[in-house]
Amino acid sequence: MNLAFFDAKPYDKPSFDAFAAENGITIKYFETKLNEDTAELAHGFDAVCVFVNDTVNAAVIDRLCELGVRAVALRCAGFNNVDMKHAFGRIHVLRVPAYSPYAVAEHAMALLLTSIRRIHKAFIRTRDYNFSLAGMTGFDLHGKTVGVIGTGRIGRVFMDICRGFGMKILAYDKYPVPGLDNGDTIRYVELDELFANSDILSLHCPLTEDTYHIINEETLASCKRGVVVINTSRGALVDAEALLAAIKSRKVGAACLDVYEEESDFFFEDYSGHILDDDTLARLISMPNVIVTSHQAFLTEEALTNIAATTIRNLLELFETGECPNELCHRGGDTQDCKTGKCFG
Question: Which contacts qualify for 115-124: CB closer than 8 Å, 24 or more apart?
């Protein structure tokens, strides 16, 4: 099997090379992202492997099909960058539903602790031998209420971490997990109650039509003054302009962002020698109470190993048996995991 690997980074290669070599798969790495202009590079390959900022729209899907590509292997859980309606019946789309929920959840907590305890400021100060504590006052997490939107694997791990700090949890999910609500430290509530009563908001949900800009001017206005917003899921969950305005008005006390709505133009690349064209992102980064990381929450050795192993296994199962439990289908207007693999019937 020949695999075209788009948006390749140095940290991707060791794990994928190891699993590919064990299973007779040849990988060609392309640093460029997959889009309408680069789809031609997939000529002669059986499948393509893509990441969160690759574009798999209708035009790309059609060109891949014309080139004889049979499968799109996502090395991530989210698939909002894929036109699933157009893909259905044309090309197989596989994903990695869970690689390391601990990696993302722990990064979310790392961002939160760094922000509220001013760790990033202390690091910069002490390197200049400035040991003043002026402006470094934080607050305890113990006893605070965190609103968790999305209670899948990552959300639940983050909730466990929060419970270890003695925090109370208000949770929201379109599909609540049975038995998770204990009526005390963890309660499922509607979004209105969650926004109104949370000291901290953490997003762990997929990007869908329902969750697009779930954090917006209206929802931020209903939050407590000084609320901390954490987003390690998808950038478009947050209306960046509304968030910026809420920070400037002091409604939002801090923001911890590992993702950004227009990140595909910047994240994963070195722009240190350039002027940033995105004024909103530039202003967010300039704020003293905002921490931005470059979509690195997933980036642990364990996660990279799991991503490579699952991606290669997905392709082997599909090409050898015609079925893959991690295949995505679109049936009756609802995107879901396909358990039969018969997405073309």
Answer: 115/228, 115/254, 115/256, 115/289, 115/291, 116/141, 116/228, 116/254, 120/291, 121/288
Closest CA to 221 of 255, 200, 250, 190: 250
> Does 87 score more than 80 pLDDT?
yes
Task: Evaluate if residue 337 carries a pLDDT over 70.
Answer: no
295 is catalytic: yes
Single out the catalytic residue among 106, 153, 156, 263. 263
Task: Look up residue 296 and give its DSSP letter.
Answer: -
Residue 120 three-state SS: helix
User: 113: which 2 tokens?
Assistant: 């602790």
Distance from C-alpha of 83 to C-alpha of 104, rounded to nearest angstrom: 25
Q: Give 344 or 18, the one with higher predicted confidence.
A: 18
Distance CA(219)–CA(230), nearest Å, equals 14
pLDDT (0 to 100) of residue 139: 97
Q: What is the pLDDT of residues 209-241, one digit of tens each?
A: 999 999 999 999 999 999 999 999 999 999 999
State the catalytic residue, choosing from 107, 295, 327, 330: 295
Catalytic-labelled residue, pool 95, 204, 234, 330: 234
Using CA atoms of 208, 212, 215, 221 in order, give the dihedral in degrees to the nearest 10: -130
Torsion of CA 316, 317, 323, 329, to 10 degrees: -70
270's torsion region: left (phi>0), alpha (psi -120 to 50) or beta? beta
Residue 194 clears pLDDT 50, i.e. is over it: yes
DSSP state of 41: G
Query: Six-digit token pair at 314?
Result: 């997905």
For the stretch 302-322, what's the b/e string if a residue is b when 16 or more beta carbons lie within 10 angstroms of its beta carbon?
ebbbbbbbbbbbbbbbbbeee
Amino acid code (one letter) for 231:
N
The answer, as to whether pTM is greater than 0.85, is: yes
More confident residue, 146 or 266: 146
